[in-house]
Amino acid sequence: MAVCCDLEADINGEETFLLDKKIICSFSGRLSKLFGKSTGANRNKVIFNDFPGGAENFELISRFCYNNGEIDINPSNISLLYSAAEFMEMSKSVSGNCNLLEKTKKCIEELGYWTWPDLLVALKHCQEMQQVGTSSGILEKCLDSIVGRLAITSEASPCASTSSPDSSGLRLSCDTRSTESLKNSFSRANWWFEDLSVLSPNLVEMLVKSMVSRNYNQVIISRFLLYYQKSKFFTASSDEKRQVLEIVIDGLYTLDPSCISCKSLFGILRVVMNLNISKSSRNKLECMIGSQMDQATLDNLLIPSPYGTSYLYDVNLVLRFLKAFLCEGGWRLSPTRMRKVASLMDLYIAEVAPDPFLRLSKFLALVVALPDSARDCWDELYHAIDVYLEVHAGLSEEEKVKVCCALNYEKLSSDACVHLSQNAKFPSKSSVQALVSQQLKLKNLLQGTKNSKPDMDSPCKLNETRGKAKKGEGSEQIVLYSGRLDISGDNENLRAHLQGMQWRVIELEKLCKKMQAQMAKLMKSKTPPTHSTARSLPRLCS
Asked: Which residues form the BTB domain (predicted)?
């Protein structure tokens, strides 16, 4: 049969084909509608600017038409042929049963029976078409088949030595008691990491979404994302690294927080510092880290400050971590987790306090970031404030008072109060407040002693109280504080007076402990005390 060349086809500007218009139109509904029943001798020309797969794929279509509807459909060309068949409208209504669209659809329906290597080949070609802006109709189905295969093989424990989890490549672990089997459990779970690490960031995003929707093991998903990030960074440009990191962070953010370690998140953060990723992805990463703040270490938090800032460490970043920790946890935050974060922050504040460029507002923000209930003792914070005031000796009295107002004096130990009362770097009001706090503690201690005493001849009073002592000891009385302090006078005289008061406080504490021990013995023996064992209790004047 004579073949004429009455149709010229320009394919995406890549190549021009001379074709028999009658043959091509008998399979393509698009060309058939374009030329109708024209049988003129004049040559026609058609220009396609967006033909799927370009000139190479058009040649496959032409061969299909010239071979009377026969062509080898395989994983390497199915995505191209399917897209071209849709583009050229090669349906049953045009060519009957010999139509390319039906043939490719039937092959796609058998995706579930393809081997793992065949699925990878098809997925690779789908990715190539997506990168040139052509949508493949089988991309989602191919991804879905891959995820389904992974779900099956994760349950069947595929052999770590093969990367083909098709029906002929699966092998169940028969010896569950085998030490080697347990040893290789992780390698069996991540056998597919290398195969899928060649995917583009967009396809990885689709893959992770499909896995999450199928309730795939999220720990393995997180490991794959970290593996993907590391494998891509070897040859990627800065823009490609940024895109990969954004996809990895967004993927991790969709998973359960317990599926990724705090150490891994900080590893990503240190990479992010050198890349200009989107604000949305950065916020997600900070939220994930903040939610695991109780798992962080001091080294994790010692992140250098951004370029252009004078202070040593990035305090603003740590404050955002704390905000995320408090906001994400809400009422679910346990006291144990709060105490862990408080201990970590005490170490961090002590580390940044010597920075001469750290502004007062930032230092105060760190001190008051957590609620008072997070700390049982404020001694570490006191020492950090002491260092800060020493380094920033130029602070005004008002600024020093502002720093000291952040202290919880009631949770300072006696030793810390002694140190504070003798500390010339602190305002005089702070010294007085520390001692008043100690007085209140002793007052409460004495009140508790009164409530726990057995019935005696005379009740315990605050101004003049009697306790029980060993026979032979005389009565003694300690005056803790009588008179009013004038803090407007000379500071050195005031400090000397406060120091004397503090020694009286210590002496009183010793006496109270001795009294409590004696009363405990009396309660055990239930023997009423004789008058000769009485001694005067200290007087506590307000």
From this structure: 5-68
Are the CB atoms for 312 and 305 separated by under 8 Å? yes
Asked if residues 452 and 529 have their Cβ atoms less than 8 Å apart, the reply is no
What percent of the residues of the chain are helix, what percent strand, and what percent coil, each to the nearest 5?
A: 60, 5, 35
For residue 117, CA distances in Å to 75, 114, 123, 153 come to 9, 8, 10, 15
Please state the domain count of the chain.
1
Closest residue by Cα to residue 101 from 78, 83, 85: 85
Per the listing, tokens 């007076």 go with 497
* pLDDT bucket at 464, cuts 50 / 70 / 90: very low
Question: 425 pLDDT exceeds 70?
Answer: yes
CA distance readout (Å), 542 to 221, 409, 436, 437, 478: 65, 18, 9, 12, 14
- pLDDT at 407 exceeding the cut of 70: yes
Q: What DSSP character marks residue 240?
A: H
What is the β-pairing status of strands 44-48 and 534-536?
unpaired
Reported residue count of the chain is 542
Evaluate whether residue 58 is within a structural domain: yes
Q: Is residue 131 part of a domain?
A: no
For 24-65, write each residue's pLDDT tens digit.
888 888 888 888 766 555 778 899 998 988 899 999 999 999
The answer to whether 103 and 78 have CB atoms below 8 angstroms apart is: no
Q: Residue for token digits 């005696």?
A: 456
Q: Check residue 215 and give left, alpha or beta (phi > 0: left; psi -120 to 50: alpha).
A: left
> Going by C-beta distance under 8 Å and a sequence separation of 6 or more, which residues neighbour residue 287?
253, 324, 328
What is the structure's pLDDT at 174? 37
Give per-residue pLDDT as tens, 297-346: 999 999 999 888 888 999 999 999 999 999 876 566 888 999 999 999 99
DSSP 8-state code for residue 204: H
> For residue 195, is it within any domain?
no
Residues spanned by the domain of 102: 7-113
Question: What 3-state DSSP class applies to 116?
Answer: helix
- Write down the pTM of the prediction: 0.73
Residue 289: which of 317, 331, 313 has the closest Cα?
317
Asked if residue 31 is part of any domain, the answer here is: yes
H or E element, residue 84: helix 78-87
Place of tokens 């010239």: 66
Query: Residue 44 pairs with which residues in a beta bridge?
Result: 7
> Phi first, then psi: what are they for 17, rounded to 5°?
-115, 140
Closest CA relative to residue 302, chosen from 245, 377, 260, 354: 354
Instruction: Give the model's confidence band at 284: pLDDT under 50 very low, under 70 low, under 90 confident, else very high.
Output: very high
Element (H, E) at 19: strand 15-19
Instruction: Please tell me which of 99-103, 389-393, 523-527 the model is most confident about, judged by mean pLDDT.
Output: 389-393
CATH code (residue 15)? 3.30.710.10
